[in-house]
UniProtKB/TrEMBL annotation:
Transmembrane annotation, as ranges: 23-46, 58-75, 82-107, 136-161, 173-194, 242-266, 316-345
Entries under NCBIfam families matching the protein: flippase-like domain
Name of protein: Flippase-like domain-containing protein
Annotated compartments: Cell membrane
Source organism: candidate division WOR-3 bacterium
UniProt membrane topology term: Multi-pass membrane protein
Amino acid sequence: MKILMDMGPQVNKTKITIRRKSIIIGLRVFIALSVLTITTLLIFTATRETGKALLKVNPIYLLLILGLLSLYIILEATRIRLIAYAITGNWIPITYALQVIFCGAFLSAVTPFQAGGAPIQIYILWKAGLKWGETFLLLILRGIFYLLALALFFPVILPYFQRSYTGRSMQILSKYSIFAYLLILGAFLLILFYPKPLKKLLYSLTYRRGKRTDATRRLFGFVREVRRMRRGFFDFVKKRKLLSIGILIFTIIVYIPNYSIALLILHSLSIKAPYIDTIFRQIFLIFSAFFFPTPGAEGIIEGGFTVLFYNSVPKYLIGVFAILWRFFTYQLIVIIGGFLSLKLLRMKKILSR
């Protein structure tokens, strides 16, 4: 079954397709991996001391954690609106920006390599009044500013971890982080400055016995929009230099509340930890998790998080700490996004066949 999003006449009746079967399969895998991960962590780390520690947690910490999460979501929605304003000169309603966050998180969580969020985000932004090429540009810029914000810290973080932490697990994470960092940077530079070789390669993959296929024709439309996106990106950077710097700085500010949740969870469990060190570990983990094939990188994130904090948190609390951190920083957003996505996919503009 396919769910087709009608993008209207302004994009030549182009339709963005979301396969319901793929979503259902991904959702089942995501839930199964989540349950398996939680069960495994509790089996290998939980003791009677774990229950005693949880009973001592002050409920006020729950409100503070939810407050930080809400602040992050509001700031991220504002960041999306700011990028939209920089592109179009108009502010989109905050409700659409919130849908981009929640629905994108849900569909990314239930698809391999976290690649499924873009179609529904494009549709939401189109409904908000953006042209199709503008929706691509907004999503690209949103990701670029986020990666640039992480990249500013990464040259400092990697040597810091190599000096401070040893062991095979850390070496594997470090090597994969470098690989992900270089791959993302290389792909970005290739698309921006050397698109023709990439275009030829993609076209050659769609040809069958030297003839064009339906995939070739679909790729043609995609390449055309990428070309528009490139032009829009360079125009944006040239004409909006100060605004670009401002958005980059704001992006760093946006993620401070989200990365502070881990420290608040530690305090609720009566564990003291350096603030900067806690943030650095999470940034390092984010780079390590890029392109993992499991839906939402589920299981990999929790495992990496446990490795990074294993020497700083008592064994009987490390599993609970990883579970709570993952829930408040990601899974709760995915759950809300699931309800919103189901509601959105039932709108009359979306046809089920």
